[in-house]
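User: Predict the structure for this protein chain, please.
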Amino acid sequence: MKPVTYIAPALLALALSPLAALAGDVAELNILGFSADGKVFAFEEYGVQDGSGFPYANRYYIDVETDRSVPGSPVRIRIDDESASVADAREKARHLGAKIYDEDELASNRGTLVASNPVTERSADPHRVALNPRPVFPPIDPLLEFRIEEIFVEQPKRCEGLVETKGFKLIRIGVEPGKETRVLHEDEAIPDSRGCPTGYRIGGVQTFFPDDAEPVYAILIAVETLGFEGPDFRWIAIPGRL
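Assistant: Here is the predicted structure, written as structure tokens:
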């Protein structure tokens, strides 16, 4: 019994220590919307950076056809002042983002969140989602299914000796007859913007049905990365046409 009475106080002290409060930073996700013709998708992420305590806000404007950032994007704001608020960082990012694309147009064409799987979810499959592309019942659209696979990609030098990094492959499953399964994205290298990623999960799917254009979607992917106090989560999006 002596080892137990000796270890228990140590465990209690550890639980009450500042180390127990350490945690990574999960960026909040906000869908800004689509352009009226569905050619551009935009979203923002924001939060307080772990370690520094500095507020940040990032905005991404993506060309749906090419899956590339439009000119001027992304917008990245970090205020290196612990007394500053996340609202301050978001306002700075909003001001710069308005120069890239009209905020009102995006808000008027926000689309529909048809699938959601937050990083706190533990009862759903984080690597697969199957959905109806719009809230019409009974459904009138073909079922959509996406899967994400974590794959080996050469370790970036910046991450060597720190953590085992991963890339990802995103697949659209051919659920309906005549529809082939196809790869939407497959990493060949890990971009600097991702830091040192250790995991990926499908966090949501947003769809939009323009009046005079083919409907579009955006798959929101939560990227788990090496943080200062714990794992951080940031967001990327893969858009496409239905």
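The first strand starts at residue 28 and ends at 34.
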